[in-house]
Amino acid sequence: MIAPHPENEPERVEALRRYEILDTEPEAPFDDLVHLAAQVCQVPIALISLIDPLRQWFKAKTGVGVCQTSRDIAFCAHAILQRDIFEVPDALGDDRFATNPLVTGDPHIRFYAGVPLIDRDGYALGTLCLIDRVPRRLSWQQKQALTVLGRQVVAQLELRLRNRQLTQRLANGERADAMRATCLFAFEQTNNAIAFLDQTGRYTYVNRAHAAMYGYEPAELIGKSWKDFHTASCIETIETKVFPVLLKEGRWTGDIVGRQKNGNALAADVSLAVLPGHAQSSDWLLWICHDPRPPHAASVMPAARPAPPPAPDQLKPSQPSPLRILLVEDMEDNRVLVSVFLKALPYRLDLAEQGAAGVEKFQAGRYDLVLMDIQMPVMDGYEAIRLIRLWEETQQRGTTPIIALTGNTREEDIEKTRAAGFTAHVTKPLKKNTLLETIQRYAISPSLKELAS
Q1: Is the pLDDT of residue 34 over 80?
Q2: d(C-alpha 402, C-alpha 368), whole Å
Q3: Among 142, 158, 281, 289, which is most exposed with the fewest C-beta within 10 angstroms?
Q4: Taking all residues of the chain, what is their mean pLDDT, rounded to a whole number?
Q5: Where in 52-139 does DSSP place strands (E)?
Q6: Structurally, how many domains does the chain consist of?
Q7: 344: closest CA among 225, 222, 216?
Q8: Are 233 and 302 spatial neighbours (Cβ–Cβ below 8 Å)?
Q9: What is the C-alpha to C-alpha distance for residues 11 and 326, in angstroms, rounded to an integer?
Q10: Does residue 339 lie within any of the structural domains?
């Protein structure tokens, strides 16, 4: 008897292929698990069988020499339709399998038991299965052991996937870092004053020419706002006339009067350009100055000496507070990955390892954005956002942007997150560019958000 396909067969096969494990070389962690399963359950044959559209392929095996069989005759094709152990005590006496060539011929299966390998998204990828050449049944203790070992197989698959993804991301990051280093080297060789700013207006990079033009060392400017070096009237002009053009056209060129470290006024031809990939990077604006010179008397904006430092309890308007982000995620790898992505950016990241802790932290602090995993033990993301939205309503608080982190890509799953109150979603595995683009879209600084509207 040929097993029917699961109702979610296309999605199940896609989930299996994401692991990139089919037709790979043997690996010790999987080999160890099949040997342990065979010993604990006292059977001669144990397999980790993965079911693709046409075959069952053995990632690990003991007691047989073949690497795969047709899916049409696979006992495991029946087992993936179950949520629990699928057991056949005597295949020769079972109408579904009595004429199966694996029963009538090698390896002469009489007993079969398989536990489905179900990933985090609920897809059955294959089985950890046991085979004997004589009829038998598993004891309760053996069934428990087989279930536990099956979960360990899935854990190894997930670990293998995350390690591969992390390695790829690090490699991509190294290539990007090398290209950036080359560009920055070139910038240091030019006499043009070049700087990058983030969306909050802080310098992320200045070349030596730019710093020298204002009378500083480059290190003194990193993290400072452009507003620190321009007068109030100049700042108003840039925010009300220049930035709207930037947001609409992507570039602006004109004269700007700044203030040097010694308090002297300085005029320069300035070219401003929004970076094409600004939504995927900490760098938002390219600022290039040409032909620095003393301004004409009629055009000099009030450029008095630098103001005295503010009192410790005062918030300097030109230095906006970093955006506060709460990450609620039970997987340590993802917490580390997001922390790496946001490192050195103007964000303050707080972490919660499960839903209840995330709700508690949210209620205790004020956050500009929340990143929320959907699938978490005890309290999942849907229950956590329900409690957060209810609390916001009772406290008469505005609605905080909450981004769903999910491995589900089906439209009905995405619609479910919207209905639950999530602002948007980011699909796992997490990608740096996509995550930063989403954060910058929904947690943009107040001044830029006002201009964009």
Answers
A1: yes
A2: 9
A3: 158
A4: 84
A5: 55-62, 68-70, 86-88, 111-118, 124-132
A6: 3
A7: 222
A8: yes
A9: 31
A10: yes
